[in-house]
Amino acid sequence: MLFDRVMVRISPEDGERRSSGGIVIPATATMAKRLAWGEVFGVGTSVRHVKVGDRVMFNPEDQLEIEVQGTTYLVMRERDLHAVATELTEHGTGLYL
């Protein structure tokens, strides 16, 4: 990746969902704009706050989609991320908004 670009794969659990009442909501159901979680698979040289392996929250509708060796990824700028969740923290909760 170049500059401030981040390559993300959408988490599989962002497909079908269940409501609190147990009703299955398919991934194709239209709802209000929904942010998605994904895992970072590549970062550019100018990316400062995200590293490979982090989980990030973003709007999947505004991103560019690419396919690499049969796997679909999204490419976006670092500034388009809304949150970063990392397991390796020195202090705090691991979720940065």
UniProtKB/TrEMBL annotation:
Pfam family, one: Cpn10
Coiled-coil annotated residue ranges, if any: none
Name used for this protein in its record: 10 kDa chaperonin
UniProt GO MF annotations: ATP binding; protein folding chaperone
Role of this protein: Together with the chaperonin GroEL, plays an essential role in assisting protein folding. The GroEL-GroES system forms a nano-cage that allows encapsulation of the non-native substrate proteins and provides a physical environment optimized to promote and accelerate protein folding. GroES binds to the apical surface of the GroEL ring, thereby capping the opening of the GroEL channel.
Record keyword Chaperone present: yes
Entry keyword Chaperone: yes
Keywords of the record: Chaperone
Family per record: Belongs to the GroES chaperonin family.
Description of how the protein assembles with itself and partners: Heptamer of 7 subunits arranged in a ring.
Source organism, top-level taxon: Bacteria
